[in-house]
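ingest -> validate -> predict -> emit
validate: passed (alphabet ok, no gaps, 216 aa)
predict: started
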Amino acid sequence: MAEKEKLVYNQIAGQKVQRMEALSDGVFAIALTLLVLDIKVPVSEMIHSERDLFNSLCTLTPKFLAYFLSFMTLGIFWTGQSAQHRYIERGDRNLNWISLFFLLFVSILPFTTAFLSEYIHFKMAIGLYWLNIFALGLMLYIHWGYAARHGYVDLPEEERSGIDKAIRRRILISQSMYACGALLCFVNNYLSIGVIILIQLNYALAFGFMSKKSRV
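emit:
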């Protein structure tokens, strides 16, 4: 009896995906705002000339670089999650928790960003940041796979296969490219970050590094 009640509860809990969408938007908004708080205005007592001010501003370059990198990262994953929610008409308790774990890694991105900006010359900082991106991609892939497998996706039969493959392929290709970009830290840390930013710009602005079939 208890097992039956548990199955029923799992089915009725988390039915309204709109609530999870609203929560996701809130978490993303807060995370995007927290990113900029790591950038502090230079201490005025140390600045006595235009040159001092310029030099102080230059020391903030790693923080601005990490901020731009993470703003793009959150924007891409917010867009990816929104694309999935477009087709997911309902859910259950398990799908809710998959979404919550995805948001866990969204909320921790401001920390890994601050860590990267503070220790940008260390490979470990890039490795930790890449692990955050990997966890986001993994949870997004699991989220879509679970929804599709349990019949929570509302798609015409003739479009189902194409859209399913496009969403899965986009995540797999992007994660492979992020991994390659992260590995470039063994050559040069700034080269690694620069390549990751180029990958993100491609996904955000669709420059054409990927074929049109891979885009959603």
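The chain has one domain: 2-214.
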